[in-house]
Amino acid sequence: xxxxxxxxxxxxxxxxxxxxxxxxxxxxxxxxxxxxxxxxxxxxxxxxxxxxxxxxxxxxxxxxxxxxxxxxxxxxxxxxxxxxxxxxxxxxxxxxxxxxxxxxx
Length: 105
Prior knowledge:
The protein is mainly beta.
């Protein structure tokens, strides 16, 4: 099986990540990314757990819709089904965005 890479954009920073299991649920991939450490031993992305208003944040992947040039959130679950990259037609080498999402409270 060939290596699977994604370019992940967050806060004006794009990092190429090797995805060990492209068939993993999106929630697992976001969790793994949250704990990814660079060669310098520090977290690659800073994931604040609250926004500037104090609301807790969750994170999702997003993909640009080529027709409207708008980033659409890839929901990790639809009904009871965990969603995977393939469910959103994400291919090796694609650019995806990390989208912070306030949790309604």
